[in-house]
Amino acid sequence: MLRRVLYIDLTRGESWVEEKHDLFEEWLGGTGVATQILLKETPEGVDPLSPDAPIIFSIGPLSTMFPAMTKTVAQFKSPLTGELGECYAGGRLAMAMRFAGHESIVIRGRAERPCYISIENDVVRIRDATSIWGIGAARVGVILRDVEKGVGRRSIIRIGPAGERMVRYACVVVDTYRHFGRLGLGAVFGSKNLKAIVISGTEDVAIPDPKRYREVYNRIYRMVVQTDAMEKYHDLGTPMNVNVLNLLKGLPTRNFQSTSFAEAENISGERLAEEYLFRRVSCAHCPIGCIHVAMLKTAFTPHHEFEVRRVSYDYEPIYSLGSNLGVTTAEGVLVLIDTCERLGLDAMSTGVVLSWATEAYEKDLITPQETLGVPLQWNNVKGYIKAMENIVAAPNEFYAALARGVEFAASRYGGMDFAMTLGGNEVSGYHTGPASIVGQLVGVRHSHLDNAGYSIDQTAAKKQLDLSSMVDQIIKEDDSRSVFNSLVGCLFARGVYTEENIIDALGSVGITKSKEELTELGRRIFMEKYRFKTREGFDLSKARIPRRFFETVSTLGRIDPETVEKMIALYKERRGWV
């Protein structure tokens, strides 16, 4: 098995490989290993945009070797929250790292001028990127595919103008249609003068017991293709949640002022599939094909001449750039998603930033002078496009504040009660009940994917779970996902990868783990992440919860602040933090 970490120092222009058998033996891979490297390589209190702040990419022992084991984890100190930055991306990157022979890659330092990194197996070249600096992420991908000749086992990741200008929630585009989206990895790239990474590999993967591996692989493959995930995520995909959450009164609308949207049907997964769906795409070595790509046709002259763009869409950008901005057409949502893609902005944070700004504008907390005449109004797609461009260009203090996120902007202009962040991270598209709030607040990356609190709320509605049971479920998900994210798998297939299947899959590639060992490993990984978070200043007892959460009816009704406080107290008690 791989046990190799590739180090790249942009300041010195050097690279080297280190064998880390003990590290991978203890922490498995993926997020478990990345967290240990982050703790060691990140100076305490370092500026996230300093040359001394590292970027870590890591894959797991099952990456590319089993269906839906398609993700790569990135860890860094977040320039948005000032503590743990962690995000995941699919595409071909995990495959490329696997065949290049590197289970983790660590990048530190800062190049003197714009650069990109070319990795082919153990050969690392740091190349000049001055000619592609300032160019959009999609175009850069096309250019580098032509310039860097390589094999099919190749991945290209890059930033857009937002990352270059260090917008605190800039993303990194991975191949086509995938992203390291949350918490500002793109800004960290920009701070290092790093435009892109091209990685390819030709190494073989040694299997200790091919017969056993094939037996386990075939069984898991059959389970993946026969699971309801195939139909659910392949057919409509996550956009099916638009209509579902709207009916449940859990769809955030106009900056969480409401949880139902009269025009939800117009931006739903069903409407997008009927009128815009062009194709579906899979990540490398995944049979599901959950990436939904729309064909967006826009006229650029009055004489029936059109530009055609392909735009991938999921539930979260539909919420953040759709219902949460009051956008009433599928075309409007796709145009805004495409603008984020062009600029290299995280769609979720961007939508929440703009929804706060729209409400603040509506309440006269900010003026037309500060917006430079841009009318920040619900459903004003053209206005939002201009605002996005201004966030990247930062022509004045107001847009520079927006580029630092909702929490910072509200601290300057007011409106903190409706500044929708948890742990400093712009919130996801669920107002389902207290577990969603608590789950994002206590989660290691303040994401709905840390522990699926939104799903726990919906279970509570059906089974009448008490607060204690909801907290227990959050903790169980925190820990089990720490293991799964060390493999590093796609959460869409988490139902297939039971403890038994994980143990069998690991055993087939020569790694022996028991249920008890995996359970304890998940708990330890979670606690190690919290060690980094608290070291860098996160304090759960001082974390802010926007008042808006308690003003708007959720799926479980109106939420009492005392309910959330009780759940947080129970969580801390069961984690041993009191």
From TrEMBL:
Keywords: 4Fe-4S, Iron, Iron-sulfur, Metal-binding, Oxidoreductase. This is Aldehyde ferredoxin oxidoreductase. Coiled coil: none annotated. Belongs to the AOR/FOR family. Its cofactor is [4Fe-4S] cluster; tungstopterin. Its EC number is 1.2.7.5. Residues 1-203 form the Aldehyde ferredoxin oxidoreductase N-terminal domain. GO terms for molecular function: 4 iron, 4 sulfur cluster binding; aldehyde ferredoxin oxidoreductase activity; electron transfer activity; metal ion binding. It comes from Methanothrix thermoacetophila (strain DSM 6194 / JCM 14653 / NBRC 101360 / PT) (Methanosaeta thermophila). It is an enzyme of class 1 (oxidoreductase). InterPro entries: Ald_Fedxn_OxRdtase_dom2 (IPR013984), Ald_Fedxn_OxRdtase_dom3 (IPR013985), Ald_Fedxn_OxRdtase_N (IPR013983), Ald_Fedxn_OxRdtase_N_sf (IPR036503), OxRdtase_Ald_Fedxn_C (IPR001203), Tungsten_al_ferr_oxy-like_C (IPR036021), W-dependent_AOR (IPR051919).
